[in-house]
Amino acid sequence: MTAIKDAGSAPEGADAVHARPDAGSAPVEVLGLRLRSPVVVGSGLLTDQERNIRRLIEGGAGAVVTKTIHPDPGPSGNERLLRLPTGMLNNTTYSRRSVDDWCAMLRRFADDGLPVITSVHADSPVQLADLAERVTDAGSGALELGISCLNEEGGGLEDTPERVAAYTEAVRRRTPVPFSVKLAIGERVRERIDAATASGADAITLSDTIAGLAVDADTGEVRLGGAFGYSGPGIKPLVLAEIFGLRRDGLTVPVMASGGVKDAVDVAEYLSVGAEAVQIYTALHRNMHVTLRTIRQGFDDWLASRGGTVADLVGQSVKRA
Ligand SMILES: Cc1cc2nc3c(=O)[nH]c(=O)nc-3n(C[C@H](O)[C@H](O)[C@H](O)COP(=O)(O)O)c2cc1C
């Protein structure tokens, strides 16, 4: 059996790993979209530009989730990224592009048949339902509700099942397209997931970033000025444990995993604990296109040498437990 290739060993240079997007592809169905791979690019700064989204799809992404669109993203603040040995802290919030600009872009993606999942959030359930309707009218075939961004609350978002239900219900009433609700692991996560599914979510994305803090030991200064979104390899075991536990406890709703994927092995691990698709984000902040292609190709090659389909892999750890 071929060992899964590690993105960390990817050669430098944008053209060092060539895309073979459809050679040995591993199709899955997510949010009503037939994707050629379970490897999906998650929402973030890298998915705020049309050019990047198109190149990521050309490079093999099964789908790309847009940066979260917000009708009133507020003034652009001092948005920063801080690299840590185990991942990254960021205090970013929403796209600064207008909804009109996004709708024009989403129309072009739809016309070209591109697998783009539109991430949306707003200040109230009714405002989010309006936005969901607008992006749906612009041709979006699948949405992700990015309702759990803790950065807006300075790390202190108190997400509750009631809040999740209110946003989910409002959107479900106004749009027929499939959508996933993105949540963060943590307190009452099973209740929040159940609230989303009972209110009409078609899938769950787990996890958004979780609150993290970095301090300068000499001066006592809190870096970035507070607790903000922590992502990257450090959160992977936590998210894996959560998805494994949820599946073992009988959760059946489709799950898109998100948290710390850096190579093809990580993709296989998330599928094994029961995720149907796997998002990658922070790892793409280094050598974006090479890293994506290496992970996507590494996973396809491994699956081809092993035989079987992605569906055979999904949940195999849970069946063994
Ligand atoms: C710089 C940065 C910006 C992000 N922006 C968004 C966003 O706009 N909407 C969203 O739903 N998630 C956002 N995320 C969260 C990622 O999509 C992802 O869920 C999270 O970082 C965990 O996955 P990872 O460890 O692979 O990055 C952002 C993450 C980072 C690091």
Give an overview of the whole structure.
The strands form three sheets. An eight-stranded parallel beta barrel has the order 3-4-7-8-9-10-13-14, surrounded by eight helices. The protein has a four-stranded antiparallel β-sheet with strand order 5-6-12-11, with no helix packed on it. The longest helix has 19 residues, at 288-306. It has 321 residues and is α/β, with parallel strands linked by helices. It has helices at 50-58, 99-111, 125-137, 161-174, 189-198, 236-248, 264-272, 288-306, 310-313, 316-320; strands spanning 28-30, 33-35, 39-41, 63-65, 81-84, 87-90, 116-120, 143-145, 179-183, 203-206, 210-212, 228-231, 255-258, 277-280. It has a single domain, classed as TIM Barrel (Alpha-Beta Barrel), CATH 3.20.20. The structure holds flavin mononucleotide.
Task: Give the N-terminus to C-terminus distance in angstroms.
Answer: 24 Å
Mean pLDDT: 91
Class of secondary structure makeup: alpha/beta
Estimate what percentage of residues fall within beta strands: 15-25%
Within CATH, the superfamily carries the name Aldolase class I
Neighbour order of strands in the largest sheet: 3-4-7-8-9-10-13-14
Multimeric organization? single chain
Principal-axis shape: globular
Low-confidence stretches: 1-21
| Count of individual helical segments | 10
The number of distinct β-strands equals 14
Q: Give the CATH architecture.
A: Alpha-Beta Barrel
Largest sheet: 8 strands, parallel, barrel
The CATH class name reads: Alpha Beta
Q: Ligands bound here?
A: flavin mononucleotide
Number of domains: 1
Tell me the CATH topology: TIM Barrel
Provide the gyration radius in Å. 18 Å
Could you give the order of the helices and strands?
Answer: EEEHEEEHEHEHEHEEEHEHEHHH
**Helical residues, percent:** 25-40%
InterPro entries: Aldolase_TIM, DHO_dehydrogenase, Dihydroorotate_DH_1_2, Dihydroorotate_DH_cat, Dihydroorotate_DH_CS
Region (Disordered): 1-21
Cofactor: FMN
Protein name: Dihydroorotate dehydrogenase
